[in-house]
Fold this protein.
Amino acid sequence: MGLLGDKITIHGGQPLIGRIELKGAKNLVTKAMVAALLGESPSILRDVPDISDVRVVSSLLEIHGVKITNGTEEGELVLDPSAVESAHFAEIDAHAGSSRIPILFCGPLLHRLGEAFIPDLGGCRIGDRPIDYHLEVLRNFGAVVEKQPSGIRMSAPNGLKGTKVELPYPSVGATEQVLLTAVRAEGITELKGAAIEPEIMDLINILQKMGAIISVDTDRVIRIEGVERLEGYTHRALFDRNEAASWASAALATNGDVFVGGARQQEMTTFLNVFRKVGGAFDIEDDGIRFYHPGGELKPVVIETDVHPGFMTDWQQPLVVALTRAKGVSIVHETVYEQRFGFVDALVEMGATIQIHKECLGGQPCRFGQRNFNHSAVISGPSKLHGADIVVPDLRGGFSHLIAALSAEGTSTVSNVGIISRGYENFIQKLEQLGADFVLES
């Protein structure tokens, strides 16, 4: 599916029933692919989903000389960085705006080539997500950063050296930047205020397999001892817990019963607690988790998104659709991204009662509280959703719109659904497997 123009017509009101299988997490596999640049030998990454973000990163790696081939099993990639070289500006610029991953190429390319060029960055428009953290981090390591109209050019005339970094917020992207840069920097790097999401820990596992020396303390401090050489890795990626939560929410909103193969309890604990409080049910099996609506009324909840081990921001959008069916008032306080409630306009058009507020509701004051951002949602229910014409705004919001259309009475037309393919592998086939009633137009 392309990223623009795709349209799906959904006849709602049918419960989703059946089994789907997960592959690796979007938020891990693309970073693991970048890590392969650091190795002196080929890497093997397994359970790679066929999503557009993976294709973008594959193209960026290939234009830098990385040879990528399919392995012996489905979803296995072999990444050979032995012929890495500088890419032509025009080839890199062709990917400008298609992904935010290119910023993470900087550290590895500075180690391998002594220079890096990063085009304008894209990604979902859910908040500012500035790259200032990344650039400041790279300067701390000794990189010379030059901003140009078409992007950012960097060099490391004296090599990269270990440093001390303290993040004002546990940014996942900035933590990944430090890890990918520090592992081959000369000396010791200390990172305070680090993100410790499961995908970060899995990236650390990969880097340790390559020969890195990394320790993680309980107070969000990560220490990296730089090494001169790293080898390739062989690794099976962590499952996509965001996709698992999305299908769980779809099961709940449609009165369905969905077994999510590959999902694991440990990384889903916080979501499972909230899912149960709302009135959903789940069964933990060795090969996945069954999510289902057990009958009866759904209950309102108060949720505050947070960095791990808190309730993930990517979980709230799909769950909000299910909360429109809960009897009473639910509150969702978004503390990670300041503009993540744009998707609710379509839900209101479909009959939901949702009010958005600038105040910090339902939890502790957060960094957005005095900055005039609409970052709290009050959902009153139960509401009966009806069909509507919807345009997908971003990845998670787009999947939430699919859920709304699936649970609504009548027919909905959801446009721009190609964006969903950025993070959900074969979601059209999965909808078919679960018995959804729809027609896809391209």
